[in-house]
Each structure stands twice: as C-alpha cells, then as structure tokens.
Design a protein that fits this description.
The chain has 178 residues and is mostly helical. Helix content is 87%, strand content 0%. Helix 1 packs antiparallel against helix 3 and helix 2 runs parallel beside helix 4. About 3% of the residues have low confidence.
C-alpha cells in the first residue's frame, strides 16, 4: 500500500508539473498570437506609402526651389521631413524581424508542448527550454513595442510636416511653369 501511495504521489507531482509547464506554453502561445496581430496590422498609411510620398515631395521641392538666401526655418523642416523617410526605412527591419521570428517560436512551442504532453526527451530540462522560449517571446515583444512607438513617432511627424512641405512643393511647381 505504501509503494502504491508513493507511486501515486510521484505521478501526481509530475502531472502537476506537466500541467504548469503546459500552462506556461499556452500563455506564451496566446502572447505570440497577439503579437502576430500587431505585426500584421495593415490599418493606416503603410510605411512604403509614406516613404514614397516623402520622396516625391522632396523631389518636387529640390527640383523647383531656387533661393537667393537660406531660409533656416525651411531648411530645418526639410531635414526633419527627410528624417521621416530614413527613420521609417530603418525601423521596417524591426517589423520584418518580428514577422520572421513569431512563426519560428510558435513552431518551437508547439514541438515543446508535444514533447511535454508525451514525456519525450529530457524531462528535467523542460523548464529550461520554456525559459529560453520565454526570453524569445519577450524579445519579440520588445522589438514590436519599439517598432510601434518609433513608427508612430515618424508618422506623427509626417502628419505634422507633410501638408506644409507638400504645399511648398506644389506652389514651386506652379511658379516654375508660369
């Protein structure tokens, strides 16, 4: 009877541990699903459209602006406007990294979940594997947080400067053709 109780206790502890490990994986899978939604969000002006718009507007100004004096305020606005294109271009790599990594981590979690459910591989290292995948999930979360914040900053700057710079470019084109 003592052996049966001891065996049941050990099995029960393993099942509790298994349940806890699977719960951790489920939480990470849910987090990754949410991050995938953020990474694949297509609402609003796309980065490529913004970059194309900035390029076209800068080209209008550059091709038609002839000044006999330097307008420092305009020069500052133009530099800030040019920074939008550069900033969004650089930041797009963060989104690409997240989009690539999310499915990879989802696959690893699925494999790990399968191993835990079936008691496959080194059971003593399950928590270590889970911790490793948690660090990857946290890294993806941080990369996407940075991407979203940076993208918002540059799109806000675009919304602020674009009407002024576009109007300047359009008026220069009109004046050049008169």
């Amino acid at each position: 009877l003592a052996v049966a109780v001891l065996g049941l206790t050990i099995t029960s502890c393993k099942n509790d541990n298994k349940t806890e490990l699977l719960s951790q994986i489920d939480k990470m899978e849910n987090t990754l699903d949410s991050l995938a939604l953020i990474a694949n969000d297509t609402i609003g002006l796309s980065s490529s459209e913004t970059i194309a718009s900035v390029r076209a507007t800068i080209l209008k100004v550059k091709n038609n602006y002839v000044a006999d004096t330097i307008d420092y305020e305009l020069a500052e606005k133009m530099n800030s406007y040019k920074d939008i294109r550069k900033g969004i271009s650089k930041n797009s790599g963060n989104l690409a990294k997240a989009k690539q990594t999310i499915p990879e981590v989802q696959k690893k979690l699925s494999d790990l979940k399968h191993d835990i459910e079936n008691g496959v591989n080194d059971r003593d290292k399950y928590q270590e594997y889970i911790n490793f995948e948690k660090s990857k999930v946290n890294e993806i979360k941080e990369v996407l947080r940075y991407y979203v914040e940076t993208n918002k900053k540059y799109h806000d700057k675009y919304d602020e400067l674009h009407p002024t710079i576009k109007q300047l470019g359009d008026s220069l084109v009109v004046n050049a053709h008169e």
